[in-house]
């Protein structure tokens, strides 16, 4: 199994606090990998390191064998890394479809695409693509709604659709099922299956173990910024250290 | 049209052009308090080109805009390292420095001012304003305009989407300066005189007020704000000496009632029955987004 993403000896410290320490794991291409661990284990920090929001104090990040550790954050999406956010970060001044148009940026090219007044053209290709992606997630009815007034579950899923529009090969989803009702969680699962069918690789931070079991074949457990265990969900659930650190407390 | 009316319309045009110069960076969340400096640059450069180099107005005014844009491009990189109130102060200082330089520059008349030999009539001012307005309307339908709003909402996420936030911010400030420079160039040629004292901090602050009052959410905001500020004092002339008191009270009232400005953007909300019926369980249980008007103008 080739690795799409490889984290090698990654470390970051904020002041004296070592948040991620000598962390290594790989995300196999075309598979869904879960990153789990108790609150404060460093899961979101790993996302911030991979997406370039933070620069590591040590270690390397490889995407399809290429070292992207020093790549500026804005260039990473063009190399195939897109993410959603734990605390849904949609642009509140824009409508749903406008948020998605921003999400398409990585697929556009040059100054011409930046300056063409495409929103004068009814049903322009870019808008159509955004609405098609919304429709796949069952959200087409919200295309022209302002995001500010939307229910949390819808906002959360629009955030995911926006990430998919960059055409990324690796989607990093930060607690995609948190705060969703059962119906919305089912729709999310269907949506992720659709994306998997297109060969998209997933890296998912999630606390809902049932969701992790259904969606992810591969699980990496973090605690205090270090890898505690790795394997299938069943394997890591049998691990005594994992039970003590995380699952034991949750049970 | 009487002389009074056309004179008033010309002032309105200059105010609206200046408002668009401020609007572009402000759409990305950047407060430019130095727009008068860019206008002065355009005014002096264009006047110099017609006076000394014998250029036509049609060439000199755009060249003045280009000079202002070039200046903005040069200062944008250091200035945009600052944010928020510090950016406002940096642009304020820049405007003061530019005005002070022209005030002491003897080649363009220094403190005595600089007479301009060529004259641009009201028709030319109207045509130029219409062209700038049309360009702004076109620009508002581009990704560039979309990214300005995205940056104002969340610069970190906009960056992660792959947008070069710094380049878009520099572009907005520069393009705004070009528009300010065009306005300045036209101003000098219409009034046949340029003096540094005109391009003072009050001009910059009033222009910011036009934009704030009109609203930064849509491209119409600066037009409405500029018109409000220019025309209302004239309408209130009947109030005699009290008209500026009335005007100030009206401004306070508008800002209190509509802090987002007179013109606000709203998303078009059209439920799609087909999609909704295909996935009823996903949308049921949610009240759905609130209906908002497409473009709402009120209070004026």
UniProtKB/TrEMBL annotation, chain A:
One of the record's GO molecular function terms = L-valine transmembrane transporter activity
Query: Does the keyword field hold Zinc-finger?
Result: no
Record-linked Gene3D superfamilies: P-loop containing nucleotide triphosphate hydrolases (3.40.50.300)
Q: Which GO terms describe its cellular component?
A: plasma membrane
Database matches in SUPFAM superfamilies? P-loop containing nucleoside triphosphate hydrolases
Keywords for the protein's UniProt record, in alphabetical order: ATP-binding, Nucleotide-binding, Transport
**Database matches in SMART domains:** AAA (SM00382)
Q: Which residues form the ABC transporter domain?
A: 5-249
PANTHER family, A to Z:
AMINO ACID ABC TRANSPORTER ATP-BINDING PROTEIN, CONSERVED COMPONENT OF ABC TRANSPORTER FOR NATURAL AMINO ACIDS-RELATED
What protein name applies here? Answer: ABC transporter ATP-binding protein
User: Whose protein is this, by species?
Assistant: Methylobacterium terricola
From TrEMBL, chain B:
Whether Membrane counts among this entry's keywords is yes
Subcellular location, record wording:
Cell membrane
Q: How does it sit in the membrane?
A: Multi-pass membrane protein
Renumbered residue ranges of the record's region Disordered = 273-300
GO cellular component: a single term:
plasma membrane
UniProt cross-references to CDD domains, sorted A to Z? TM_PBP1_LivM_like (cd06581)
According to its UniProt record, where is this protein mainly located?
membrane
* Transmembrane listed as a keyword: yes
Keyword terms, alphabetized: Cell membrane, Membrane, Transmembrane, Transmembrane helix
Q: Where are the transmembrane segments?
A: 6-24, 55-77, 84-105, 117-139, 199-220, 240-257
GO molecular function per UniProt = branched-chain amino acid transmembrane transporter activity
Superkingdom of the source species: Bacteria
Q: What is this protein called?
A: Branched-chain amino acid ABC transporter permease
UniProt organism field: Methylobacterium terricola
